[in-house]
Amino acid sequence: MSNDEMESATEPGIIYLSTIPTGMNVSMISDIMSQFGKLGRVYLVPKATKRGKFRQYDEGWVEFVNKKYAKRVAKNLNCAEVPGSKRNPWFGELWNIRYLPDASWNDLFGAEREEQEQRRSAHDRDILIAKRHARQFTAALEATKLEKKLEVSKGKRFRSRQPIDLNKRQRLTESEILERLARSHRTPPEGSSSLSALSNKDFMTSLFSGGL
């Protein structure tokens, strides 16, 4: 056995069906193709809309465990009439089969699986966000109900909670102003009534000249 024959005996092969006979499904395609050799995977693309009582498919791929089986099917069945009687919905139709050299199943469907995983991850993320929003809404609703119950039970004694404005700055006390001025070595602003002693020049002169 030559090297090419040994490689062909271990390497899988894939055929492409550009059309699927009317009324046939994955099971029927597998039964027909398995007569030529052992199969691997079979995938048919369903049509967007269903017409009649049969599920329709646009195209499909069939993997054989040995590429020589795939070559044999493409050679013998392409453009041949699909076997069946007049009672079969595919009667009179022809096979459209092509062998795909150097093609692997991962090459064909790896990108599609990755897109499916990405869509699934995005869908799961949207579900988590929706659940979190629902929990927040439920918690806010329960808090509102509790506040209304307390208001009814306590009457005039009830004081509703006021929201805290975190952006609102409180006024500094006199001691805080003096401390900041001491750290910055600056004089207090003019016109400050609470710091009149520091801003009075006569008082400061008498203080340092020993007048007091």
Automatic annotation (TrEMBL):
<dbReference type="GO" id="GO:0000472">
    <property type="term" value="P:endonucleolytic cleavage to generate mature 5'-end of SSU-rRNA from (SSU-rRNA, 5.8S rRNA, LSU-rRNA)"/>
</dbReference>
<feature type="domain" description="RRM">
    <location>
        <begin position="15"/>
        <end position="85"/>
    </location>
</feature>
<dbReference type="GO" id="GO:0000480">
    <property type="term" value="P:endonucleolytic cleavage in 5'-ETS of tricistronic rRNA transcript (SSU-rRNA, 5.8S rRNA, LSU-rRNA)"/>
</dbReference>
<comment type="similarity">
    <text>Belongs to the ESF2/ABP1 family.</text>
</comment>
<dbReference type="InterPro" id="IPR035979">
    <property type="entry name" value="RBD_domain_sf"/>
</dbReference>
<dbReference type="InterPro" id="IPR012677">
    <property type="entry name" value="Nucleotide-bd_a/b_plait_sf"/>
</dbReference>
<protein>
    <recommendedName>
        <fullName>Activator of basal transcription 1</fullName>
    </recommendedName>
</protein>
<dbReference type="InterPro" id="IPR039119">
    <property type="entry name" value="ABT1/Esf2"/>
</dbReference>
<dbReference type="GO" id="GO:0000447">
    <property type="term" value="P:endonucleolytic cleavage in ITS1 to separate SSU-rRNA from 5.8S rRNA and LSU-rRNA from tricistronic rRNA transcript (SSU-rRNA, 5.8S rRNA, LSU-rRNA)"/>
</dbReference>
<dbReference type="InterPro" id="IPR034353">
    <property type="entry name" value="ABT1/ESF2_RRM"/>
</dbReference>
<dbReference type="Pfam" id="PF00076">
    <property type="entry name" value="RRM_1"/>
</dbReference>
<dbReference type="GO" id="GO:0034462">
    <property type="term" value="P:small-subunit processome assembly"/>
</dbReference>
<keyword id="KW-0694">RNA-binding</keyword>
<dbReference type="GO" id="GO:0003723">
    <property type="term" value="F:RNA binding"/>
</dbReference>
<dbReference type="GO" id="GO:0005730">
    <property type="term" value="C:nucleolus"/>
</dbReference>
<dbReference type="InterPro" id="IPR000504">
    <property type="entry name" value="RRM_dom"/>
</dbReference>
<keyword id="KW-0539">Nucleus</keyword>
